[in-house]
Write a structure and sequence with these properties.
With 533 residues, the protein is α/β, with parallel strands linked by helices. It is built from 18 helices and 18 strands. It has a five-stranded mixed β-sheet, sandwiched between helices. It binds 2-acetamido-2-deoxy-1-O-phosphono-alpha-D-galactopyranose and zinc ion. The active site is at residue 68.
Amino acid sequence: PAIHQAITEAAAKYRFPEGRVFEYGTAGQPRTANSDLLNTVVFAVGLLAGLRSKKLNGQWIGVMVTASHNPAEDNGVKLVDPMAEWETYATKLANAPLDKVADVYNELIKEIDIKMDNPARVVFARDTRASGSRLVGILNAALSATEVEFMDFKFMTTPQLHYIVRCKNTLGTPYEYGEPTEQGYYEKLGEAFKKVMRSVKVQGHLTVDCANGVGGPKLHELIKYLPSAEQGGIDIKVVNDNVINPDSLNFECGADYVKTKQRAPPSSKAAPLERCASLDGDADRLVYYYIDENNVFRLLDGDRIATLAASFIGDLARNAGIAQKLKIGVIQTAYANGASTDYIEKVLKLPAVCTKTGVKHLHHAAMRYDVGVYFEANGHGTVTFSENALKTIKSAEPQSPAQQQALECLVGLTDLINQAVGDALSDMLLVEAILAHKGWTTKEWLGTYTDLPSRLVRVEVADRSIFKAVDAERKLESPPGLQDKIDALQSRYNKGRSFARASGTEDAVRVYAEAASRSEADDLASRVANAVK
Ligand code: NG1
Ligand code: ZN
């Protein structure tokens, strides 16, 4: 009853967003930061996070306030440990009129069967968006009203918050993940990087575009824990690290800009062949690129990071003499370039699995392997190691110095890679280490296979809910007949592949097409887009 009262009083400060219905999408982010909708959604997520923690007997739950790669004026909120059925609970809470929120909260307690005597613990953080402080205040109000123990980690990258949650929940168990502090994160990455780099040296320097987001200050901090260039470490030049001007966030820079525009940020001063990387606004996406000798932009996206990591870990497992004991798999979505899938299956001889869009699906599929390498083409991804993999790697008896070296490197990788979630800073260190080990420049990395030209178009439709996808979102079962048209179209092109699906984050349908030549890919994309309209 006290909580019911407190919720109602806290909720009375907000306005119910007239005429709008909140739905949980691919990433569960309603977007415009100043809308009443977002206030009530954040309040609902705060209430829900406490319930979820109680349900899990007081496990720490994370709440991140960010809109990732989206414009500075947007914002959003995500639960660090998402579960499909909790999305429907969030929807219920967020759509309740404010004077009824406490009633819905009570109904949920019954529906989910929550023991209210259990402790509830929540950590939260935010990116650098101006609206973040207001939204964190709302979270605070929801958590206070429901008597939840919480910690505010202020500014953090999304993966840093995931790291904190994992550390807190494994403290005192055999799976202890690390020190649950921001410094602990840097120390862990720094130590692991040194271990992986023991016998090699990074060539040249790396320019990192931080999207003018929270990744900028955090990268500056991380660098303090890395070996200097003289010690064999990376010579990192940090650019687009302005977090003072709030409008510059993701503006003409960052991983999403680079991937979708297929060009370097206009502000880039990188010379030809210089190695460059871009993070997104909350530093959970990473892409690499360079300008070649002919001034042509060359992108190394998530597919490239996945193939690089899978090939390296496969080699290490063989060199360590444990290849037979580690089942390695690569998880992609339908947006992965067909050439990368071919390369994984035919050259790396590893299984390539396709899942629905959204990292929760990829992460889940990755967990079915001892080593699960998963990346979305847009640069979000990581590598997971199963319990069996960790045991195998840590207990293997090396039979030669070469085996020992490979094993030590693998051990280092299990610490270097953020296994909780895709992490641009951790992925960046991984890529740098692999390139150093292979002695590769970005040009050699790009040379492993040739991407098929591809095109992604966004099609505005009257009602995107009629587009129902099946087969890992590669086929449409509704509207009737459309898939047959797409099949017929793609069969006319050399290496043609195309699919359409409703976006989970935008009110639009996305059409993807690839084919043997640029003109064929463009043509196929526009014909399929016309069929969708
Ligand atoms: P939607 O809008 O459902 O296509 C987009 C990205 C996903 C993922 C989510 C979450 C593409 C084609 N889609 O999803 O990969 O990153 O946003 O941010 O890039
Ligand atoms: Zn992001």
